[in-house]
Design a protein that fits this description.
Layout: H1 10-20, H2 24-31, H3 35-47, E1 54-58, H4 67-71, E2 75-80, H5 83-92, E3 99-100, E4 113-119, H6 128-137, E5 139-150, H7 156-177, H8 182-193, H9 197-206, E6 210-217, E7 222-228
Parallel strand pairs: 1-2, 1-4, 2-3, 4-5
Antiparallel strand pairs: 5-7, 6-7
Helix pairs in contact: 2-7, 7-8
Bound molecules: S-adenosylmethionine.
S-adenosylmethionine (SAM) is lined by residues 10, 13-14, 17, 59-61, 64-65, 80-82, 85, 102-104, 119-121, 124-125.
Length: 230
């Protein structure tokens, strides 16, 4: 069974997600101690979609992250480059237009979406800055972006406990609930190597997003970054 390295070769990342697709959502719920649902609700509130708006959910995996937007009446397009995740998503949500596509070369025309969102996926994209520019290209002027990603806990003693959890407790727990426990070693490593809230905010600005801001969830374990396409 494969796992990606911090080089994040697209072939390895896609293969790793193909391998965990079937149990992906269950494993998520267990390892996040149920927090995923709260985080998804916060993304829904942050993007604040109106009925009929066109929304791209990038790195959508099995499309669980797309459901709040469909429920709000948006036309949501879940897009991912792991065919295994897309297949699993199609089984569960046949009504959604799941689409194969790479975040750095999106198969959409310029400015076709009112809003773009990406949950727990930007960290896995090899060229983060290319993905941030590509998301802007497909968003209409005035359209918005919300990124939901693991980040850096802000309270130092908690950050230490959390890092211990990631590096020590998470891999053995993953052995019990995941079809590919090695994937969760990559998860821990990639979270530690990911830029903090401020650094990611700067990268959004460099990619041309304006009105960039962020909000911490669960003490900064997760951060929601937002931006607007000028
Ligand atoms: C951790 S899952 C998140 C799935 C979903 N958004 C959620 O919140 O449950 C990350 C997803 O990002 C996808 N991904 C990673 N790099 C990608 C890329 N360059 N283009 C498209 N999808 C990508 C993976 O295939 C995987 O399905």
């Amino acid at each position: 069974m494969t796992r990606a390295s911090l080089e994040k070769q697209p072939k390895d990342v896609a293969a790793m997600f193909d391998g965990v697709a079937e149990k992906y959502d269950l494993t998520n719920d267990v390892l996040s101690l149920g927090q995923t649902r709260l985080w998804r609700r916060a993304v829904g509130q942050a993007l604040d979609v109106r009925p009929g708006e066109r929304v791209l959910d990038l790195g959508a995996g099995t499309a669980t992250s797309s459901l709040p937007f469909a429920a709000a009446g948006a036309e949501v397009v879940p897009c991912d480059f792991s065919l295994g995740m897309l297949r699993e998503g199609k089984k569960r949500h046949p009504e959604l237009p799941l689409t194969a596509g790479d975040a750095t070369r999106l198969p959409f025309a310029d400015g076709v979406f009112d809003a773009v969102t990406i949950s727990f996926a930007l960290r896995n994209v090899q060229d983060t800055d290319a993905a941030l520019r590509e998301m802007r290209r497909v968003t209409r002027p005035g359209g918005r972006l919300v990124i939901c990603e693991f980040s850096h806990p802000t309270y130092r003693p908690f950050r230490t406990v959390y890092t211990e959890y990631l590096m020590r407790a998470l891999p053995p727990v993953a052995t019990k609930v995941s079809s590919n426990p090695d994937a969760y070693v990559y998860l821990a490593e990639s979270i530690r190597a990911w830029p903090d809230q401020q650094a990611l905010g700067r990268r959004l600005k460099d990619a041309g997003w304006v009105r960039v801001a962020w909000r911490n969830l669960t003490g900064g374990i997760v951060a929601l970054h937002r931006g607007t396409n000028p």
